[in-house]
Amino acid sequence: MPQRRHLLGAAAATLAAPLLLRAQGHQHHGGQFERLNQPGRIDLPAIHAQQAVTDTPAPRAAQQGAWRVLAPLPIPRTEMAWAVAYRNRVHLVGGYAEQRVDKPYHHAYDLALNQWQELPQLPRGANHVGVATLADKLYAFGGFIEQNRTPHDQSFAFDGSRWQAIRRLPEACGAIACIALGNRVHLIGGAIGSDWRRSIDWHLVYDPATDRYERRQPLPVARDHTGIVVVGNAIHVIGGRVDSFHTNSSLHHSYDAQTDRWEFRAPMPTPRSGHGCVLYRGRVFVMGGEGTNRVFGQNEAWDPATERWEAYAPMLTPRHGMGAVVVGDAIVVAGGGPQMGGGVKSAINEAFSLG
Q: What mean pLDDT do residues 189-205 have?
């Protein structure tokens, strides 16, 4: 079947120019959700009000920033877990959608145009796909073919027009934290197994020049669904779960590639997993995530200069398993689940900026 390529913008005129919201409730939510086991759009589930939390022990930042509403995803999705900026657009790969957990969808969002585009689909549909960009390619590693379990070992590279298979992972794995540093991609943590799912501490480095993986010093504590960013010359891995969201972590480690050593850093104020994690204006911002009967809206940031965490304006719509990417001067947060687990997907797309 030929690949569909088309622009998908906001249907409502009110979305043509993003709307700033503060305490205006959720008027923009109408029909932007869908259940995993039942087709048809629904409104924000009532259980969201019981599970959504925004309280944080972190001190409030002097400049709180603000969120605004953007053009919704064309299809409600969740459990992408990560997204990447590629050619100045937000890219979402794989996830739950349309009553399946192994969809190969690939959508890109242009903030300047406030539009979505459907791009060539991932050759192997999966959820919790690890993604990263290096040079002029977007990479996708592993993922689960069942609901947050049963991983596969296939990996691919996208050059802007098509996907190409690259060397398979040494072991099937999903929910891997991936990021480029120098001329290699680091793959850290993740989860394996089907009937018995568990977190792992692996640390692989993929070299596109040789199409091979090498092992590095393992993550000090095995976990998956973590946040990952590069600050200066160091990789930071923040939060995540040890086997399950019932055992979320606030751990924050940094990795020095020159010495192949990990170091403990200031822990995240709110333990969580499945959260967004980006470097924005010199600070590491962490937003969203889930826990036991909780879906988080906290927006906390770590300042490398002071080693302190502060709280910023919480998400308009607390979610987990969503994509979070910095494009221009905004953090774009698209899709995700509005309640614990993967039972409901969203098309919500919102952005945070400090102004």
A: 94
| Structure tokens that stand for 257 in this block | 């590639």
SS3 of residue 178 by DSSP: strand
The backbone region for 260, taken as left when phi is positive above 0, alpha when psi lies in -120 to 50, beta otherwise, is left
The amino acid sitting at 206 is Y
Indicate yes or no: pTM above 0.90. Answer: yes
Domains and CATH numbers, the chain: 30-353 (2.120.10.80)
CA-based radius of gyration for the chain: 18
Region 287-311 average pLDDT: 97
Task: Please say whether the beta carbons of 45 and 344 come within 8 A.
Answer: yes
Long-range contacts of 11-19 (CB under 8 A, 24+ apart): 15/69, 15/70, 15/71, 15/72, 15/114, 16/114, 17/114, 18/68, 18/69, 18/70, 18/114, 18/351, 19/68, 19/69
Cα dist from 310 to 156, 157, 289, 341, whole Å: 37, 37, 17, 27
Q: Return d(Cα 23, Cα 21) in angstroms, integer.
A: 6
Task: Determine the pLDDT at residue 7.
Answer: 43
The span from the first CA to the last CA of the chain, in angstroms, equals: 44
What confidence category does residue 349 fall into, taking pLDDT thresholds of 50, 70 and 90? very high
Task: Give the integer Cα–Cα distance in Å for 321 and 340.
Answer: 10
CA separation, residue 210 to residues 154, 177, 179, 185, 306 (Å) = 17, 21, 18, 12, 39
CA-to-CA dists, residue 98 to 33, 37, 127, 335, angstroms: 11, 9, 13, 13
Task: State how far the alpha carbon of 168 is from the alpha carbons of 21, 94, 136, 143, 157, in Å.
Answer: 44, 17, 20, 12, 12
Statement: residue 338 has pLDDT above 50: yes
Q: Which two tokens stand for residue 220?
A: 């000090």
